[in-house]
Design a protein that fits this description.
mainly alpha, Ferritin, 2 domains, 5 helices, 84% helix
Length: 161
């Protein structure tokens, strides 16, 4: 189970690396630097998620000090390292740009990534993984559709000004 959760988190991190490239990247930085920032951010985001899972496990096992250690490290990974790297990379753009990027990422997850993962897992008899990938895919459809609806609202307000 732990391995499957780790693989799922890794898969999501890979998606953001492949298609989650920002629409608002800083043009003052060299492309290699931007690529390195992207790799670093994905590592920090993965560490953040992983450490929170580790903290939850430690807390359930009665190891409050270990849980606190993982949570403290997770916060640094996300709220310091990731945030500072994202700032350098120009990750966040306008609401419309951010929504377009989110739609693109969620669409890839729905139409390509999770669909393919579910089919591949089913083909080799990994039913639990196939079911999980399909369940996540359905959730991602909801995210994509909500982002699309919000984008329409943002664009209609911008068009009306």
């Amino acid at each position: 189970m732990k391995t499957k959760v780790g693989l799922l988190i890794l898969a999501v991190a890979v998606v953001f690396f492949v298609v989650g490239r920002t629409t608002a990247q800083s043009h003052a930085l060299n492309q290699k630097t931007l690529d390195n920032l992207s790799t670093a951010m994905h590592g920090e985001a993965f560490a953040y998620a992983k450490y929170l899972l580790y903290a939850e496990h430690a807390r359930q096992a009665g190891n409050k000090d270990i849980a606190a250690l993982f949570e403290k490290a997770a916060k640094v990974e996300r709220f310091q390292h990731f945030a500072e790297e994202a700032q350098l990379a120009g990750l966040v753009g306008s609401d419309a740009d951010n929504l377009r990027d989110a739609v693109k990422g969620e669409s890839y997850e729905v139409d390509t990534m999770y669909l393919g993962f579910a089919r591949e897992a089913a083909a080799v008899g990994d039913k639990a993984a196939a079911d999980r990938f399909e369940e996540v895919r359905q959730d991602e459809m909801g995210h994509r559709d909500a982002f699309k609806a919000a984008l329409k609202v943002v664009e209609s307000k911008a068009g009306g000004n």
